[in-house]
Design a protein that fits this description.
Length: about 375
């Protein structure tokens, strides 16, 4: 874990050293800058996960035990909800992995093909440094050789850094998405059980006929068990959400800052620079990945908040008016607790769709300002 985390940090440092030396044009440095800052955000996430590995293990263990218990007493509707969640997560996984693998595959094929058949275009660092040659795509993304002209650092190091990026970035964000989607799923199941108020989930011996013939004392007991179920799982979900927030608040906050600036910069690079077709392609991939990552966090945080709010309606949808007075009072208290908002934050940034829209608007506004300033500069020079 430490070596893996350090590898990201070293990759970031090497790219930033190259960036600090400048580029001949904005188009030449756009993809390198995007790679550097994307790796910076991932370095923060991996380092944070490494130092909080105890929390990660605790959350995954809880998740495994809870899903195992959930599968033990599910009905057809709940199995359908679980299947839809799995299908949804598979789609998210495909959307996260496809651009990463596509970009990595293109860079690797270009590098290996040129290494085998056109080595003079690969091992040409002196010519690249004096401006008489252009680096290959892999070295444009990871210009390690321009920092330290060595085969291990410049060639193998770049290949390894690309492998880290195309595997770790989608893995981390897909993992966090799974944790967030689990909360939404569990809230949905709790909401369903409260709405149906089915005692059979607590005992295999109970069936509709036995429930109708329960004595008043037994009925009160099972009503109390249902209240305990609601309170217990609500507290567990709030605890799990708090743990998740503590795990991702620093990485998501860094993503919020870095991606907001980087999206604006890449749009400006497209408008003000003269990127090649391959640069356009990679810039488009970076824009999609960063926007999709931000959307994932803000969208699922919104779903979590809405699922918590809907729990109150699930309680109200139950046949509470038929229950004993003591149970009605308990339900009222649970509804009051459910009305407490469950808002996820990345330090002080609220995660919701409104924030995501504000990020997009802000990035476009800054891009418009930079573009206008650049056009005025061009007009004055003419």
């Amino acid at each position: 874990g430490a070596i893996f985390t350090a590898s990201f940090a070293v990759s970031c440092c090497l790219i930033f050293i190259k960036i600090s030396r400048g580029f001949a044009s904005l188009a030449d440095g756009a993809t390198s800058c995007a790679t550097a800052f994307l790796y910076l955000s991932t370095s923060i996430a991996t380092a944070n996960a490494f130092f909080q590995r105890t929390r990660v293990v605790r959350m995954v263990t809880f998740l495994h035990e809870d899903i195992t218990e959930l599968l033990r007493i599910t009905d057809v509707k709940e199995e359908l909800m679980l299947a839809e969640t799995v299908k949804y997560l598979r789609i998210v996984t495909i959307l996260m992995w496809t651009p990463s693998l596509t970009a990595g595959f293109i860079a690797y094929i270009d590098c290996f093909y040129r290494s085998a058949f056109m080595p003079e275009t690969v091992f040409n660092i002196p010519q690249v440094l004096n401006g008489t040659a252009q680096p290959i795509l892999l070295f444009q993304l990871f210009p390690f050789g321009e920092v330290y002209d060595n085969f291990i650092v410049g060639y193998l190091g770049a290949c390894y850094a690309l492998f880290l990026g195309i595997t770790t970035i989608p893995c981390w964000h897909t993992f966090v998405t799974c944790l967030m989607k689990y909360i939404v799923l569990k809230y949905g199941i709790v909401h369903k059980r409260l709405k149906e108020y089915d005692f059979a989930k607590f005992s295999l011996e109970l069936n509709p006929e036995k429930v109708r013939n329960l004595s008043e004392r037994d009925l009160l007991y099972w009503h109390t068990k249902m209240c305990e179920f609601c309170v217990t799982h609500q507290l567990k979900l709030r605890w799990f959400t708090g743990e998740l927030q503590a795990l991702i608040r620093i990485p998501v906050f860094s993503d919020f800052i870095i991606f907001s600036v980087l999206i604006c910069f890449l749009f400006y690079a497209i408008a003000a620079g003269n990127p090649s077709n391959m640069d356009y392609f990679f810039i488009a991939i970076y824009l999609f990945v960063m926007s999709f990552i931000l959307w994932l966090y803000h969208w699922h945080a919104t779903l979590i908040a809405e699922s918590n709010d809907e729990l109150c309606f699930g309680l109200y949808s139950s046949p509470w008016h038929r229950f004993p007075l003591s149970i009605q009072k308990n339900i009222r208290l649970m509804m009051m607790e459910s009305n407490t908002p469950l808002i996820m934050k990345a330090i002080f940034v609220e995660l919701n769709l409104k924030t995501f829209i504000d990020v997009v608007r802000g990035a476009y506004s800054y891009f418009s300002i930079l573009r206008s300033a650049n056009m005025e500069t061009d007009d004055n020079s003419i």
